[in-house]
Design goal:
This protein is α+β, with helices and mostly antiparallel strands and 257 residues long. The protein is built from five helices and twelve strands. The chain is elongated and about 135 Å long.
Length: 257
């Protein structure tokens, strides 16, 4: 009896010290094992996709239009635009009397996300590809589909006589700044970026052809060609003559029966 008791005590003691070895987990064949999730990279989430200079060329549109304050009955417009409302050519035809000023508005449309990789637009408006009509300085640093309104320009500024025609265009360069550049710290005049991030191929910008119709016939066209712009403007804005208050002529006598 004592031997049996001692044997039971030995067995119980050994069982209390024994621990089973862990069985390694093996995923089912043909299925990948579960891996811990990688930490989220906040920088990549802010940056979005990497932008290249071609993204600027293809997604920035610069549209010009006749300002509302210059619209008149003797001025007509012909707009050549595509389905995405990118105006390639604006033709303005003006009949006498010619205005003293003609204002154009410019809207820049950005169809890309430039808030982490800003873009600098700089250049000038040109009259007949030679005469500067003002500078263009803009930093694109917004989200998708933001619009930027530039200062209107007067395309007749500095002229003394009306020309036959003129072409208004834009001489521009675009600089794609390094990722993470602070837009508030950018000065368009002095901004720099690597040469491969600079382009002058801004495909979607408006050219404006303005025609002054001096040969319409007329005595008005000859006088308009000889009169300075300031006097043309006065003639264009003068009030119409008041209607005559004279009594109407008597009615013809009735024919004899």
């Amino acid at each position: 009896m004592n031997r049996i008791a001692w044997a039971l005590l030995v067995v119980l003691g050994l069982s209390g010290c024994w621990q089973p070895e862990p069985i390694p987990f093996e995923p089912p064949k043909g299925e990948p094992g579960v891996k811990p999730a990688a930490p989220v990279d906040d920088t990549s989430a802010v940056m979005g996709k990497e932008l290249k200079v071609g993204d600027v060329e293809q997604t920035v549109t610069i549209n010009m239009s006749l300002s509302q304050r210059s619209q008149a009955r003797n001025i007509t417009e012909e707009v050549l635009a595509d389905k995405l409302e990118r105006v390639r050519l604006l033709t303005i035809n003006i009949n006498p009397p010619f205005p003293n000023s003609l204002w154009l508005d410019t809207v820049v449309k950005a169809k890309n996300d430039f808030h982490y990789t800003p873009v600098v637009l700089r250049g000038s408006y040109l009259r007949n590809e030679k005469e500067s009509l003002g500078d263009i300085k803009l930093v694109l640093a917004g989200r998708f589909s933001d619009d930027y309104n530039l200062q209107p320009i007067d395309v007749l500024a500095g002229l003394e006589q009306v020309p036959e025609t003129m072409l208004i265009s834009m001489d521009l360069e675009a600089l794609l700044m390094p990722p993470g550049t602070d837009p508030a710290a950018i000065k368009p005049d002095t901004a720099t970026t690597p040469p491969e991030r600079i382009t002058r191929a801004m495909y979607y910008k408006t050219a404006v052809r303005i025609n002054f119709n001096k040969g319409g016939g007329a005595q008005a066209s000859e006088s308009a060609a000889a009169v300075p712009l300031s006097e043309n403007s006065a003639a264009n804005t003068a009030a119409p003559p008041a209607p005559s208050l004279a009594a109407p002529p008597p009615a013809p006598p009735a024919s004899a029966q």
